[in-house]
Design a protein that fits this description.
This protein has 695 residues and is mostly beta strands. The chain contains nine helices and 52 strands. It folds into four domains: 274 residues, 3-Layer(aba) Sandwich (Rossmann fold); 76 residues, Sandwich (Immunoglobulin-like); 170 residues, no CATH class; 138 residues, Porin (Beta Barrel). Helices cover 13% and strands 47% of the residues. Strand 10 and strand 11 form a beta hairpin. The N terminus is likely disordered.
Length: 695
């Protein structure tokens, strides 16, 4: 049997090694109420204070496979809870790959925060979410184990009216079963907010593995929890998502999407013990940034991708019922299949806007996301061919084959690859490819790639990819990429990138970039790593740019003019990326008996302080004597040149968004290049000027 799947399933964390949060913990969850008021703003929820602890732990220890999406799942839930669930950012404690003591410290901190709210006569509700490895004894945090008994004790000490636990892990249903919870329906008419008890959701039964997906870039369970909270679970269209709706949606979607995976079906569980009256409302759809309305005529599997081709949500939609989804203000592509025809719409959502799709918004497109996944292994559509030789890359339209080895003279063609494709021409894989493509002229993959692409000219991947692309000319990946791209000319990734990009001329990543870009020109979307090159450009720079020209949207380009220093009049062009900048300067002195000009390069850091900022930089100026200035005499043959290392610190004040004034001090040291023995002493600098931001 051969595995060909565009959706890579990683065994156990999902398959996340059992966060079996054993029965001991849930007995300790004292009072659990899940009443969420309809509004998320402070005025409408002044009597209720909500907190959450979100843990994402990819590292389960040296004997556990490192997970890929535990942290990103926790981040996704934080975004939903803080935008639609009435939890303020300051009341949401996020733990990323924490150590045992760090998690316990977060529990103590939460206890203090909840106690302060309870002392103010507020109703306190607390959510605990864990995503990572575990076993029958406790949570596995790196090489440490946090026993459930200890975790239970800490959680019990939090003075809350509501304790909610959500676990996405292998065998997490044991947590529900061992607690003796019953799956009764505690949902009543909305008559008040005085229900008490506990609620628990788990991603799988007590004997099943939970799974995470490369295609969803997260676990199945958490992906559908997030989509449900955004409105996909709102079955009665009252623009509120209740716990019952959320569970039913997450259960159905998770089971549906895992029935044909290699790990097998995954059945989420829940247990609720509550008393009192009131409904259980978790999120309000209209409190999100924008709303997309999927109308009644859309049915079946619907995929929504953002401007960077990231899969935001993939849901099954019922016909004859509209679905409202709260999304970030962004551009989106919506795909759904109607009678074996794939239709696509593109929309732009502004903040606070609402867009209802119509038939006219959709156009018919070629199949891109609609491939069956894992069908080759099931043997239902694909024919496995151990070895094949091709004279040219020609397609047989009546056959779907999965090649183990495809050798081509001028190239080869296969539906899917689960082995090696090699030849002197172009290798073409229509869907997904694994292992190795080594064709002299080029490699093309129409789906996802998991392995190596080696060629002289061009590597092209239509979907998501991992590992290595290597060529003397160029690499292109339309989806997300994780691994290494190396080329003689350029690399392009339209989606997110994690790893290392190296090229002779340019690198480009359209989405989030985590890693290192090294080339003459580097361009990234949101950069959290390092850019090393002559020119570095970023949408948002949160890492380290190393180059002569560094520019980002959270930096910019400025023109500066000032007086003071070795020359009377000075100008500069400042290229700023994040907090770092480079300054190219030029100046002239015209009102002195020794006219001179200066040219320099300086590197520094800007520290914002509300409307003020502090610039600290250092660099080198060249000082040219006797060549410029209105006082230069015709017989003046002085051509003395100095190098002037310089450091300065200036304080600026922003008058407007683009215009600011600054003043400061510095020091310069003159080095005589031709006669070092005549080198001068330090010269103090007193600087005053203005800056105008042009970008």
């Amino acid at each position: 049997m051969v595995r060909v799947h565009t959706e890579k399933i990683i065994p156990c964390r999902r398959i996340r090694a059992g966060r079996i949060v054993s029965g001991l913990l849930l007995l300790s969850l004292l009072m659990v109420q899940i009443m969420w008021p309809v509004a998320a703003d402070a005025e409408q929820s002044s009597g209720i204070k909500r907190f959450c602890i979100l843990i994402g732990a990819n590292d389960g220890g040296p004997k556990r496979e490192t997970l890929r999406y535990a942290v990103s799942d926790a981040l996704s839930l934080r975004k939903v809870f803080t935008t639609m669930g009435g939890i303020e950012i300051k009341d949401c404690l996020l733990q990323v790959n924490p150590k045992k003591e760090e998690l316990l410290e977060a529990m103590v901190q939460m206890e203090s925060m909840a106690a302060a709210a309870a002392a103010a006569n507020q109703r306190v509700e607390v959510i605990f979410y864990y995503s990572g490895h575990s076993d029958v004894e406790g949570l596995l945090l790196g090489g440490e184990r946090l026993e459930y008994k200890t975790l239970r004790s800490r959680f019990n000490q939090i003075p809350a009216d509501v304790h909610i636990a959500i676990l996405d892990s292998c065998f997490s249903g044991a947590f529900t079963r061992l607690k003796g919870g019953s799956t009764q329906a505690p949902f009543m008419a909305e008559t008040g907010y005085d229900m008490k008890g506990y609620a628990f959701l788990s991603s799988s039964s007590s004997s099943e593995a939970s799974q995470e997906s490369d295609r969803l870039r997260g676990s199945f369970f958490t992906h559908y929890v997030v989509a449900g909270l955004r409105g996909a679970a709102d079955h009665n269209n009252d623009e509120r998502v209740t716990l019952n709706e959320l569970y039913q949606f997450a259960y159905n979607e998770t089971l549906s999407r895992t029935e044909k995976t290699f790990a097998g079906p995954q059945h989420p569980n829940y247990s609720i013990q509550m008393s009192g009256t009131g409904d259980v409302v978790i999120t309000q759809v209209r409190s999100g940034g924008a709303v997309l309305v999927l109308p009644e005529f859309i049915s079946g599997r619907v995929s929504i991708r953002d401007s960077q081709a990231r899969l935001v949500a993939e849901i099954r939609k019922e016909r004859d019922r509209a679905t409202n989804l709260a999304l970030d203000p962004e551009s989106y592509t919506i795909l759904f299949e109607e009678k074996d025809i794939l239709k696509q719409a593109q929309v732009d959502l502004g903040y606070g806007s609402e867009k209802q799709l119509s038939q006219s918004d959709f156009t018919v497109v070629e199949y891109e996301y609609g491939r069956l996944r894992g069908a080759a292994a099931a043997g239902t559509e694909y024919r496995v061919v151990p070895f094949a030789f091709y004279a040219a890359p020609l397609k047989n339209y009546n056959d779907k084959v999965v090649h183990k080895t495809a050798i081509g003279l001028l190239g080869s063609y296969t539906t899917a690859l689960d082995g090696i494709s090699a030849g002197l021409g172009v290798g073409v894989v229509e869907e997904d490819a694994r292992w190795l493509m080594a064709n002299a002229m080029g490699n093309y993959i129409g789906g996802d790639a998991d392995g190596f692409q080696l060629t002289l000219l061009l590597n092209y991947i239509e979907g998501d990819s991992r590992y290595i692309q290597l060529t003397s000319f160029g690499n292109y990946a339309r989806g997300n990429f994780e691994g290494v791209q190396a080329s003689g000319v350029g690399n392009i990734v339209a989606g997110d990138f994690q790893g290392f990009q190296s090229a002779g001329i340019f690198n480009y990543t359209g989405g989030h970039f985590d890693g290192v870009q090294a080339s003459v020109v580097n361009w990234g979307g949101t950069v959290n790593g390092m850019q090393v090159g002559l020119i570095n450009i970023a949408g948002q720079m949160h890492g380290l740019p190393i180059g002569l020209i560094n520019v980002s949207r959270n930096g910019g380009i400025e023109l500066q003019g000032w007086t003071g220093g070795s020359t009377d009049f000075n100008t500069a062009v400042v290229f700023r990326s994040g907090l770092l900048y480079t300054r190219f300067t030029a100046g002239t002195a015209v009102f002195t008996s020794s006219p001179q000009a200066s040219f320099g390069l300086h590197i520094g850091m800007r520290i914002p302080i509300r409307r003020f900022y502090l610039d600290i930089d250092a660099g080198v100026d060249t000082l040219d004597f006797g060549k410029f200035g209105i006082y230069m005499q015709p017989d003046d043959e002085t051509t003395e040149d100095l190098l002037a290392p310089q450091g300065r610190a200036v304080l600026g004040f922003q008058l407007t968004k683009r215009l600011s004034l600054f003043a400061g001090v510095g020091a310069s040291y003159h080095l005589n290049i031709s006669t070092p023995e005549e080198t001068g002493a330090f010269e103090p600098l007193y600087i005053a000027g203005t800056s105008f931001k042009i970008f």
